[in-house]
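Quick note —
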Amino acid sequence: MTKSIKLIALDMDGTLLSPELHVSRRNQEAIQEALNQGIHVVLSTGRGFNTCYPYAEELNLQSFLITANGGEVWTVEKELLRRKLLATDVVEKLYQITEEVGTRKWMISTEKVFQEDEVVNIRDYQWLKFGCASENLDKLREVQKRLMEFDELELTNSLPTNIEINPKGVSKASALAFLGERTGISMEEIMAVGDSLNDMKMIQEAGVGVAMDNAQEVIKEAANAVTSSNADDGVGKAIEKFALK
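Predicted structure written out below.
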């Protein structure tokens, strides 16, 4: 894999961030060297903007952020470039299904993240992503089965114990393609690193797709390469090996 990498897309949880949610020194140094070499480094995360942005500041990132699994694309100057919303009536149905099945839930609006126990009037907000989680995989399978009646949803996960729901066509890969059109960078010139199903499409479509050692097995199978775990500087090692000149 001797491709010239012009953009590095990094998932956060389980990938860039350690289990303690820090960015290791080696990861920081590799990212800084990539920036020094003129390579875009883009956080590409299931998180909402507000919990992603502080890490972009810490890392001195210069260009773009992909949040809510591709539901939003931002500049680091906080300019919104693209937004894809879930229909409000769909969010109400998703809420009802997870209540009936008995899974935990969280929802990302354009303004904030709502956790399980927060009371919210769904019609007061615009929605980017809906998530549900359970250690009881039968409950998750039941939710998944009931979601089959919707044809306008994109289903992924960020852990084997959850389901993440975005509007149809929303993915980290489609957000990267959008940035590619904006910057003139092809998917072949992108390296994508991740660990879960919400990283699958960007790992498959990037010129260099890298799975973490702690990634779900299907992600490892789809990737061009497997790096060390998120507890062992996997992102830094991948950048050094595949991106830096």
